[in-house]
Amino acid sequence: MPFSPSFIKRGGGIFDSDRTFGTHHRDTNGASNLAKVGLLNRGSYVNISPKSQRWSRFASLLYALVVRDITSRYRRSSLGMWWAFLQPLILMLLFNMLRGFVNIPSDGIPYVLFSYAALVPWTFFTNAVAACGPSITTNAEVIKKIALPREVFPLASVTSTLFDFAMSGIILAGMLVWFKIPMSLQLLWLPLLIVLMTAISFAVGILLAGLGTFRRDFIFATPFLTQAWLFATPVIYPLSSVPEQWRSYYMLNPMVGVIEGFRNILLKSSAPDLDALGLSILTTFLLLAISWPIFRRLSGYFADVL
Fold first, then answer.
1. Do the Cβ atoms of 218 and 298 come closer than 8 Å?
2. Is this model's pTM higher than 0.85 or not?
3. How many domains, in total, are found in the chain?
4. Mean pLDDT comparison of 37-41, 243-247, 290-294, highest-scoring range
């Protein structure tokens, strides 16, 4: 169900249209109250709730938006959540067909497994970035009527895409069992890689969301950006095929450390390449340091252009 212009209620939270937002609760007499926690000051969101409650209320808002995005994504779709399985599978088949014409190395790993292990995080990245782009414009009515942190919309888009990531991960787990790939304690690196992958997607997505609100060209250009980015990332081919003299520059691409990390952990039972991982973390911090302030600066004018 879409957001109502007058109020929104999701998971115990109510957002009214008097330029404030809050959480619905009952006092000791059973009366219903709206705890105002935010306001708009010259177009910018200002959180006025007690510090002890800000994170819990932000989390409640984020949860509500994530649930809404997941439940609405596959509505009126015949295949439903099966699309989460099909997208990386179809790309894997296309890459395998390409390998029939071009000699693509795979570090001694069956290419089906080699490509799919990279496509699972890569598909998450492209879908998350694509979902972030229009996340402000699609919630225009809410943003114009309610004071709330605008970052929550692209963050909800990225977080909801983790559902598709988990679905495609089920197929990957089945393939690891089928090919009898041994598991090891290196799997403990996996949460770090997932957090890093999510942070990269958010850093790129929040920049496109902010710029795309003023110029739709950025949103339309997103598929071309991610397609070009694919060939600059070791998804189809291994990192070892990149010439040594260019590899340091190549690893400035933050997705390189993520993709290679997934392959090392899942397929080789080894730790991620620490050089690639370290550069990915550093580049991600730099991306966030650039994209988030730009988004915050632009967010003060969202209501004027929506």
1. no
2. no
3. 1
4. 290-294
